[in-house]
């Protein structure tokens, strides 16, 4: 707007001096009423152009500048939000990986503990079975010895009966008793 007014002032200032330099008449510009009407017309045209063309154009340009600036700010905000979300997502993934590793480590530790318990339980069961087998074996040995003693006693009684039935010499008697005693001593 200021430029337009400056150009108009320049023309108004230069116009009369050009007309006067031409000698009054027959020049480019005549100094009469028509010059005044032309100046008024020119000023009116400048005012109309300024009001209906220049100001709306400048307003639209400023509005467009503001819209572009707003779009740039929104794009920057969206970029920052996307960056923040990407960082949050990366942190969540990292936390999930750490949690998965912790769960895996706990499961491995629990499996190792369970294996140790099972091995210990199997070892104790085997030891119990061995001790039980030893106890049964010792009991069977005792029973067998008692059975042998009973059979030896019965055998001794049978031998004694036979010897009594026969006439036996003292030497035979002693030998039989010594044999029976020796047998009982071995068992």
List keywords for this structure.
187 residues; rod-shaped
Explain this structure to me?
It is rod-shaped and about 195 Å long. 91% of the residues lie in helices and 0% in strands. It has a domain at 142-186. The protein starts with a helix and ends with a helix. It has 187 residues and is mainly α. The longest helix is centred in the middle third of the chain and has 133 residues, at 33-165. It has three helices and no strands.
How are helices and strands ordered from N to C? HHH
Q: Quick check: average pLDDT?
A: 83
Specify the overall morphology.
Answer: rod-shaped
Given as residue ranges, the uncertain stretches (5+ residues, pLDDT < 50) are none
Largest β sheet strand count, sense and barrel closure = none
Name the structural class: mainly alpha
Distance between the termini: 140 Å
In percent terms, what proportion of residues is strand?
under 5%
Number of strands: 0
Total helices: the number is 3
Radius of gyration: 67 Å
Helical residues, percent: over 70%
Which helices and strands occur, and which strands form pairs?
Blueprint: H1 2-21, H2 33-165, H3 170-186
Short description:
This protein is mainly α and 187 residues long.
